[in-house]
Amino acid sequence: MCPGLEVAVCMRTGQMPAKRLCGVQGLGSAAGAGSPCEKACNPRMGNLAHGRALRTETACGRHAAESFCAYTEDTALRCQPPACGRCSGAHAGLAHPPAAMADSPFRRPRTWWQAAGDTPQETIRLDLEAAFYFTHLILVFKSPRPAAMVLERSQDFGKTWKPYKYFAANCSAAFGLEDDVARKGALCTSRYSSPFPCTGGEVIYRALSPPLAAQDPYSAEAQAQLKVTNLRVRLLERQSCPCLLPAPQAPPAPHYAVYDFIVKGSCFCNGHADRCVPVSGFRPVKAAGVFQVVHGKCMCKHNTAGPHCQLCAPLYNDRPWQAADGKTGAPRECQSCKCNGHADTCHFDMDAWLASGNRSGGVCDNCQHNTAGQHCQRCKPGFYRDLRKPFSAPDACKRKCECKEQVLGNPKVFCGMKYTYVIKTKILSAHDKGSHAEVNVKIKKVLKSTKLKILRGKRTLYPESWTNRGCTCPILNPGLEYLVAGHEDVRTGRLIVNMKSFVHQWKSALGRKVLEILKRDCN
């Protein structure tokens, strides 16, 4: 149930409303009061017209005082004695400005807006400072409801408009449209265009009526229907109260008059916030008895960011951003990138995402502390890993291992080194054992082996050129793939790497060239 909404209608009309309007499934109830927003959540709903200026083309007595009369009917549809008065914008007690439609229906129950008497058509417009979720509209008329009107919305701050619903006593004659009384789902309805009751008649519109009401309110389809930046109601045809007048009285001239313009909605946060604050520069319009204003900037949760939580936070782009699931309650949080403490931001990369089997697509930006790689997972060239410190430490990478590499030039020189193994391998980690260093690798391809049985899979390389700084030559950076040619130590079963070894970062062309040299020149 929507507390306060039905009461507002009853106070104006003295009638029970035709139906309960509880908003959109998942919006009002996604998170209860005091919720920590652990699941899909949404800020509290309210009247979006509160704290904002309603605009109309005219107002009774705006330029000069006007007289008016209005009839109501009894149960036999006979006219009651007319209620007549004067309106004047120069006197607060006689003014009927647009703001009267958005004041408190509890503290100011007998205030209304009234159009100038000579106005055949009118427009009521609400301009919002940001995009909001709109769930339903309730108009409570003081005058008879229009014979024809249309509710429209904009999603681009008034540049373009689309109709939500047409309302007419005769949809075909007024708009050339079918009536949803006869055909469910039609764009026009005659339900709210009867002149009776002559005062207190309601016009009600729900933004997500069945079957759309069953959708996830944060889905793209639902957002296309719910998101608004502006609303306007165009009143196109007036009608008089057709109560039975005692002869020879003539009915008064028709006019438009509205008690309440209730725009139910909430801050637009994609299911990732339960509280909102004012948009920068927004200053609420004061209205009598109005203390609660629905604000438009989300206080984002679930590692999201942006005015509508429409982005992942700077270091949480390991997966594609998603709106929360309003049907299951799944929050669909943004996931942190694995940057080892060496980056402040990351971005999502679709190629990395697909290459990982849709598990991780985060690429760390501007790796700090002399690190490099997708996850800042290795020391950049010219720096070595200090194994005495965790890799997340800001000084884990130290400067100028200087190693002279073997160059692949004359094939006879390469063959003359009499390498006993040649492998393609990925460096997993390096460890300082005190008396020596060990490099854990994953062998991916064996191009040559002699006496030791070398299989694909995990193995350890033993660098001979080790120093107490933790530096190994040749340089083997974790995370990279290398072509390594070296010598076997048959006595210990170890694969040795030293300054005579040929170590170069793996490239397919290099692998083919070395394999060709092994077959053609080294036999």
Automatic annotation (TrEMBL):
Q: Which residues form the NTR domain?
A: 397-522
Which residue range or ranges hold the Laminin N-terminal domain?
Answer: 37-266
Q: Can you list the disulfide-bonded cysteine pairs?
A: 300-309, 367-376
Give one Pfam hit by family name. Answer: EGF_laminin
- Give the matching SMART domains: C345C (SM00643), EGF_Lam (SM00180), LamNT (SM00136)
| Keywords per UniProt | Disulfide bond, Extracellular matrix, Glycoprotein, Laminin EGF-like domain, Repeat, Secreted, Signal
Report if keyword Signal is assigned: yes
Q: Which SUPFAM superfamilies match?
A: EGF/Laminin, TIMP-like
Localisation per UniProt entry: Secreted, Extracellular space, Extracellular matrix
UniProt key word Endoplasmic reticulum: no
Q: What is its main location?
A: secreted
Know the name of this protein?
Netrin 4
Q: What is the lineage of its organism?
A: Eukaryota, Metazoa, Chordata, Craniata, Vertebrata
